[in-house]
Write a structure and sequence with these properties.
The chain is elongated, with a radius of gyration of 20 Å. A hairpin with a 2-residue loop joins strand 2 (27-29) and strand 3. The N and C termini lie far apart (44 Å). The strands form 3 sheets. Strands 1, 2, 3 and 4 form a 4-stranded antiparallel sheet that branches. A 4-stranded antiparallel sheet has the order 9-10-8-11. It has helices at 6-16, 56-67, 85-101, 121-131, 149-159, 176-186, 210-219, 228-233, 235-240; strands spanning 18-19, 27-29, 32-37, 40-45, 75-80, 109-114, 138-140, 164-170, 188-194, 199-205, 223-226. Helices cover 38% and strands 23% of the residues. It folds into 2 domains: 6-159, Rossmann fold (3-Layer(aba) Sandwich); 164-245, Alpha-Beta Plaits. Bound molecules: guanosine-5'-triphosphate (GTP) and magnesium ion (MG).
């Protein structure tokens, strides 16, 4: 939602989280910056806020941008905790409903309960407790006063998933370029080799995305093999990958 404090928090996080040099550029744009949290490098993206009663055409345009969210590392939801509880709940439920509609429910989510400097500590705790029915991972913050920013960063770190590695092979076909660009949207291509008979490579992706990648690669007549060792290292990853959709 607009005015919740997204941009202020974005600035707080990029000054607190170590701005990182991801190759050529640290600042990618005014709204995207590379930061390090623990051992992980992330792109932090400041988004536009929801506005109630948007014209339908705009809602549709907005939706296509939002759909990218399914490939996100994590959703950082920001609520203005100084608003009345009913208002916060209404906005929160719109957000959660939208996340479900775009199919992003499996993306890890952390909620920043912002602007705690405007309310009493008791009020903040009470609202947090009340909202815990809807959002489990939440942190009380003040982006303006830089309160609990470190705490929020560690909650983000705790909720990041581990990517898995997979090797893939694509046969040459009319579809191969399209497949490759889709794969690059869904995963990080670690390694790629072109020979005249095929394209082979390695990729890293979140377990929840793997079934989509498998479908794309199989659809293009290729093959994908998850790295068994890397896969076994983290048990929850196995559980997230439907066995029927993977080939070992
Ligand atoms: N008191 C207080 N004010 C805050 C806090 N965080 C943000 N604000 C103020 O809230 C207003 C909106 O902040 P923004 O960061 O621009 O909000 P936004 O969510 O990016 O808004 P849009 O980009 O318009 O959707 C500004 O006046 C901020 O200074 C906070 O923790 N405490
Ligand atoms: Mg903003």
């Amino acid at each position: 939602y607009t005015n919740a404090g997204k941009s202020t928090l974005f600035n707080a996080l990029t000054s607190e989280g170590v701005p990182t040099n991801l190759g050529l550029f640290t600042t990618l744009s005014t709204t995207t910056r590379a930061i390090s949290i623990g051992k992980r490098k992330l792109l932090l993206i400041d988004t536009v806020g929801f506005v109630d009663r948007l014209p339908i055409a705009l809602v549709e345009a907005f939706r296509s941008t939002l759909e990218e969210t399914i490939f996100a590392d994590l959703i950082l939801l920001i609520l203005d905790l100084s608003e009345p509880t009913g208002e916060i709940e209404r906005k929160l439920s719109t957000c959660i409903q939208t996340i479900q509609e775009i199919g992003a429910s499996s993306v890890p989510m952390v909620t920043a309960l912002n602007k705690i400097d405007l309310i009493s500590p008791a009020d903040a705790e009470e609202k947090k407790r009340h909202l815990s029915r809807f959002v489990q991972k939440s942190v009380l913050v003040s982006s303006l006063k830089m309160t609990n920013i470190e705490l929020l960063l560690s909650e983000i770190e705790r909720n990041l998933e581990s990517p898995v590695e997979a090797a893939f092979v694509l046969p040459p076909s009319g579809r191969v370029q399209r497949s490759l660009s889709l794969i690059r949207e869904m995963a990080t291509v670690l390694d790629i080799e072109y020979s005249n008979s095929q394209i082979s490579g390695k990729l890293a992706a979140y377990p929840r995305i793997i079934p989509k990648i498998v479908a794309e690669i199989n659809g293009a007549g290729g093959e994908i093999t998850l790295d068994r060792q890397k896969d076994l290292r983290d048990v929850h990853i196995m559980a997230d990958v439907p066995a029927s959709k993977t080939r070992f």
